[in-house]
Amino acid sequence: MSVPLPWILYLSSALFSIGVYGMLTRRHAIGLLLSVELILNASVLNFVAFGRLYGNVHAQAFALFIIALAACEAVVGLAIIIGLARSAGTVFVDRLTLLKG
């Protein structure tokens, strides 16, 4: 029993929409990172769905590459956020003026 492709695409578009909404409304840096992760997971879900539909293992390999890239992005992003929190005292992106000219 397999899930039909339109259901997977609906789920992927919902994840992408939630991620974009989070990027536009969040002021907390960790919330922004979580929104980026949702957007990347939506793209991974599309790659896996179409790879399964067409029998293409290259799409699934590319999905694994995106998952590894998302993990690296999370680690580097959290390191930057911790560094900014220690120096500026806040993780709200609208209050950070440390990087201004």
Overview of this structure, please?
- It is a single chain.
- The protein has a single domain, classed as Helix Hairpins, CATH 1.10.287.
- It has helices at residues 5-25, 29-54, 57-88.
- It is elongated.
- It is mainly alpha-helical and 101 residues long.
- 78% of the residues lie in helices and 0% in strands.
At the first level of CATH, the class is Mainly Alpha
Helix coverage percent of residues? over 70%
Number of β-strand runs: 0
Strand content: under 5%
- Whole-number radius of gyration? 17 Å
Largest sheet: none
* Individual helix count: 3
Structural class category: mainly alpha
Shape: elongated
Number of domains: 1
Q: How far apart lie the N and C ends?
A: 58 Å
What string, H for helix and E for strand, traces the elements in order? HHH
If you consult CATH, what is the topology?
Helix Hairpins
